[in-house]
Design a protein that fits this description.
The chain has helices spanning 12-15, 20-34, 64-67, 72-79, 87-95, 113-126, 159-167, 184-198, 223-235, 253-262, and strands spanning 40-43, 103-105, 132-135, 140-141, 156-157, 171-177, 203-208, 212-218. The chain is α/β, with parallel strands linked by helices and 267 residues long. The strands form two sheets. The chain has a six-stranded mixed beta sheet, with helices on both faces. A two-stranded parallel ribbon has the order 4-5. Helix 2 crosses helix 9 and helix 8 crosses helix 10. The longest helix is centred in the N-terminal third of the chain and has 15 residues, at 20-34. The radius of gyration is 17 Å and the shape is globular.
C-alpha cells in the first residue's frame, strides 16, 4: 500500500479506519461479496491526512450488543484497532480478507492531470477480473468547482473514470459525503441521476446513512445479485440499523435535469 510522497505512513483514510461509516462500508462490501457473489475491486483513493481530528467516531464499538449482531466477525476486527490507527491497520483489510476475494488498488491519488490519467489506467488494469468497483473518495462524485487536474481534485471520483469501469462490465459503488449546504434528498437524487445519465441501462441503489450515502450503479446483468444482497441486509436487520433505507432511486428526469444543469458546489 503506497503512502503520499514525503509523508511516510500517513494517508487520510487511515484516520477514519474503524469509525462507524467504515463499519457500514465494510458490512456492505462483505454482503455484496458473500451474498451477491461479486468479485470486488476496492479503489481506496488515498489522500494526505487532513489533520482535522475527524474520524474518531468509534463510540459504536462500546455498544457491543447493539452493533456486533450486524456482522460479528467484522465488528471484532475493527474493535481491535488502536485509537489512532496507522497504515498497518488499514492493510489489515487486505491481509485478513475482511472483504472476501477482493482486489485492492491502493496507490496515492494525485491531483495532476497526467498523473491522474496514469493512476486511472493502472486501476483499470488491476481490476481487470473484477465485477464491481468501489470508489472511496474523500468527498464523492466530481463537482463543477473542482475540475480534474486542479488542486483537491484527488478528493473526487470523476464520471469519465466511472464510465470506463462500467463499460468494462463492472457495476460501480460510490462513497458520497453529504455536504452541509445541499439537502441530502437533493444530493442523492442528483448524484443518482448523473450516474444513470452516464451509465446506460444502469439501476441505481441508494444505501443511506445519517452522514454519508453509498450509491450503487448496477449493470443490467448484475441487478439480480444486488437485489439478493439488499434483501440479505434486510433479513439481517441491518435496516434501519446500519442503513436508514435502501431504495432503488427512481429516475425523475424533469426535476433532476434542472438540478444537474445548476451543478453542485464544493463539499
Amino acid at each position: 500500500m503506497a503512502s503520499p510522497p514525503g509523508i511516510p505512513g500517513m494517508a487520510m483514510k487511515v484516520q477514519y479506519f474503524g469509525d462507524v461509516n467504515d463499519f457500514r462500508k465494510y458490512a456492505l462490501l462483505r454482503t455484496l461479496s458473500e451474498v451477491g457473489r461479486f468479485r470486488v475491486g476496492v479503489c481506496w483513493m488515498l489522500t494526505v491526512a487532513d489533520r482535522s481530528g475527524h474520524g474518531d467516531n468509534r463510540g459504536y464499538l462500546r455498544q457491543v450488543d447493539q452493533w456486533r449482531r450486524y456482522d460479528p466477525a467484522l465488528f471484532d476486527a475493527l474493535a481491535s484497532a488502536p485509537p489512532k490507527p496507522t497504515i498497518d491497520d488499514l492493510r489489515r483489510v487486505e491481509n485478513e480478507a475482511l472483504i472476501p476475494d477482493a482486489t485492492f488498488f491502493n496507490d496515492f491519488t494525485p491531483d495532476g492531470l497526467a498523473e491522474r490519467g496514469a493512476y486511472h489506467r493502472a486501476c483499470m488494469k488491476t481490476f481487470k477480473t473484477c465485477e464491481l468497483t468501489f470508489f472511496d473518495p474523500d468527498n464523492g462524485l466530481e463537482v463543477k468547482s473542482t475540475v480534474k487536474g486542479r488542486k483537491r481534485s484527488s478528493k473526487y471520483t470523476y464520471l469519465d473514470e466511472i464510465d470506463d469501469h462500467y463499460a468494462a462490465g463492472r457495476s460501480v459503488l460510490l462513497y458520497q459525503h453529504f455536504p452541509r449546504h445541499v439537502s441530502r434528498e437533493t444530493l442523492i437524487g442528483t448524484t443518482a441521476n448523473r450516474l444513470r445519465s452516464k451509465l446506460a441501462g444502469s439501476t441505481i441503489w441508494s444505501f443511506e446513512t445519517p452522514q454519508v450515502v453509498f450509491l450503487l450503479a448496477a449493470s443490467p446483468n448484475h441487478v439480480g445479485r444486488v437485489e439478493k444482497a439488499a434483501s440479505a441486509l434486510d433479513e439481517r436487520r441491518c435496516l434501519p440499523g446500519l442503513f436508514r433505507r435502501v431504495p432503488v432511486v427512481p429516475a425523475d428526469d424533469a426535476m433532476h435535469s434542472s438540478l444537474l444543469n445548476e451543478g453542485l458546489g464544493d463539499s
